[in-house]
């Protein structure tokens, strides 16, 4: 009798346990369980796309799932950034973009559909992109200080003309930083990109301007233009003889572009921890570092806290430069 009671009780307990298991919500599965989409808000082929594809390939190996790059260009990166800001915060949609998305546009443009501080979880900065001050070969200035002196002397006659990629672009902001550091007024001249800008510089349409190291280095080495200074804390390997603005006595010219990886806001912390760990390991790999250096970028790993701090500082700096120079992107 006792044995039958025990058997019945055991059967009842097993049935209840099975029902509880079936009816209970599933525990959080190990991340990732499916392919991850990495959005790049630029067209294929540029530096941002190259960094994203390198990172995607290595993340796939680390996480055991495909990481697929999706290019979503448009509206100066706003289309892609907003799509990621509105995506499901589950770790399966990420974005790699340049600092334009996170600091330049938000500092200068009103009514963006996303907030770089609140719309994203900041995972890591993986590369830095210094820019270089270029001058036409005939400009009577051998150093950045001499160029600043020349700009100051020519302020009364309208100022030197310098090339930009349009209002609010990195060359525009750095040009205004240079003008402020020189105590001069200069005139921005917009071009559609590096090719037009370099052609104008060689032809003497403009006196100076800034461009990325990757675009400028071949032209400098070919003797078509001269490089006077680079932004950042140290010289770049592609132009080792070119001093920094800090060395040149113009530390206020300080803009360095960068590439940051984010996820939508409210992505779970365990997912972010997995991604942070993977990215830190990837960026410590000498092969990855060489590949990024070959793109004329500086490989780094700056975690989410450093990402946020850098972004906050640049939002303030670029906002102030934009207000003083009356740069508005509406």
TrEMBL record:
InterPro entries: BUG, Bug_dom1
Superkingdom in the source lineage: Bacteria
Keywords: Signal
Signal peptide per UniProt: 1-29
Gene3D superfamilies: Bordetella uptake gene, domain 1 (3.40.190.150), Periplasmic binding protein-like II (3.40.190.10)
A family per Pfam: TctC
Family classification: Belongs to the UPF0065 (bug) family.
Name by which UniProt lists this protein: ABC transporter substrate-binding protein
Originating species: Achromobacter insuavis
